[in-house]
Amino acid sequence: MNIPSIIPPNERGYAIPNTFVTTEWLAEHITDANVRVVDTDVPEEYAEGHIPGSVNPEDHYYKTSLEERTHIQGPEQFAKTMSDLGIDDDTLVIGYNRGGGVYSFRLMWALHYYGHTNIKVLDGGLEKWKAEGRETTTNPTSAAGTAGTFTPKANTDIFASRDRVLNAIGDDDTILMDVRTDGEWDGSNKRGGPRGGRIPGATHLEWTNFMTDGDIPVLKTADELRKILADVGITPDKNVITY
């Protein structure tokens, strides 16, 4: 795999550039005592090869069970999930995945929701790590019993409740941003649910539009993201609820 020219994350103009760490940084800090690397893909992909020492959640949706797919885990269950991954209140979490950062950012949101903001995403993911010839392994890592206490403190400000979404429909100051696939948007792909379609008045922009093309997808620059969003009417003066 050829390594494309990638603008470093701290040069892309982000408001919060330290959201990311580079592969170089991770290689230097992977054995730090307070660092926990999480492979956020499905267990089948983790088993095919992953960054040494990385752990893998049973369910990267962090839902209440593999059968009940509606709600994020409650505080006690989420705390246990994090503890089983070796994550406690003092852990610096580094998430990575394959094919863009969607699952890593899902972990970031879930941790932020429960008050743990000490998490970053590996820029370029496993693709960049492997393209640079860095080591991978098929040996699983178990971190259960290695962590201290994970204290969940729900931050409801970043959660849009049912009532909040209903109130946003028809509100000129709020945009409901649907980042799912075209098939989910038009109702042809129900993803196992009873109904397809979208929330009335929502704006559609699949999350893949935010990533660069090529073998090593990374988040586009801030200027590119602003233009992509502005083209569908999403501007800084609006409240945005994503789903």
TrEMBL record:
It comes from the Bacteria. The keyword Repeat applies. Its EC number is 2.8.1.1. Residues 31-138, 170-243 form the Rhodanese domain. It catalyses: thiosulfate + hydrogen cyanide = thiocyanate + sulfite + 2 H(+). It is an enzyme of class 2 (transferase). This is thiosulfate sulfurtransferase.
